[in-house]
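Dear colleagues,

For the upcoming journal club I promised to circulate an example of a predicted protein-ligand complex. I picked one with flavin mononucleotide because it came up in last month's discussion. The inputs are reproduced below in full, followed by the predicted structure.
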Amino acid sequence: MDLSTKYAGIPLAHPLLPGASPLVDKLDNIRQLEDCGAPGIVLHSLFEEQIIGEQTGPYSIREPHEEAFAEARTYLPASEDFILSPEDYLEHIRHCKEATNLPIFASLNGSRSGEWLHYAREIEQAGADALELNLYFLPSDPSENAEDIEKITLEVIQEVRSVTKFPIIVKLSPFFSSLPHFANEMAAAGANGLLLFNRFYYPDIDLENLEVEPKLELSRSSELLLRLRWTAMLHGRVKTSFGITGGVHTPEDVVKSVMVGADAVQTVSCLLKNGIPAFRSLLAGFQQWMEENEYESVRQMKGSFSHHNCPNPSALERTNYLRTLQLWRA
Ligand SMILES: Cc1cc2nc3c(=O)[nH]c(=O)nc-3n(C[C@H](O)[C@H](O)[C@H](O)COP(=O)(O)O)c2cc1C
């Protein structure tokens, strides 16, 4: 059986990848993931705020946020809270390349264009095979319209493209008003892949201390459905590679992700919850499902549930919506 795939031009032995998380800050874990069958490694992110802080001192790391919100100063982690400094990050890439033959997907994480993006070139020079560009950003300025927000994202992609040659995969949020159109624009700006979607972490309110409380909850399989819908919608309509992240916990989740057209399927919460050996079980389950259902290759399965050949996906979505509402019986 041929499980091979290509993600943003990078050949992978199969589509299942461990996604960006602190698990891969340690070389031992990377080796263990490789032993469990990982075909590549996505590194934890290096953050815009870290790079700016390193370039201009610890005060200015907080400055842009302070303008927006007086309490932001106490919210931002101190530079020593990040496990790897920007310099350490480059060193980590070099060590990963020495420790394994797997492709290394580094990760830069920020929101707007700026000097910090030049780090993309340093990451490439350090030996990373590709870059995940995580544009985690929640628009909150009423004077910025949808076009402005898209422009901000496109500028970041163009800037990174102008200083690098390796594949860029944009990890994005689902909140765009016309994602198919915007996806095409991101591909034209230089994105070789799109990774659907960032999970947003919604802070809670601590009523006892009247404070905003950051909350980290791991995902569930139900979150995959949003990713399946949009990958099905975009696959074959946008000339770029697709990855899925968010809600991949079972072999069936991996199968569905490939069926809607994902070239790579990332998992994080499942590994944080169950440990690195869970990767091996997930992969074995995926392979077994393919065998039992007589698939000969990932290629044969890929995109079989995408809307590629559907003349009007919007009408299909509307039909599904109407059918779903009729399912409820008191
Ligand atoms: C503890 C933790 C740390 C993470 N760190 C990063 C990061 O540095 N960069 C990034 O792009 N995503 C990061 N993520 C997001 C994951 O890569 C992934 O997109 C998200 O958890 C959804 O996948 P899942 O449902 O398999 O967990 C992190 C997630 C967790 C839980």
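Two points we might discuss: The chain has a mean pLDDT of 92. The domain at 5-325 is CATH 3.20.20.70 (TIM Barrel).

See you all on Thursday,
B. R.
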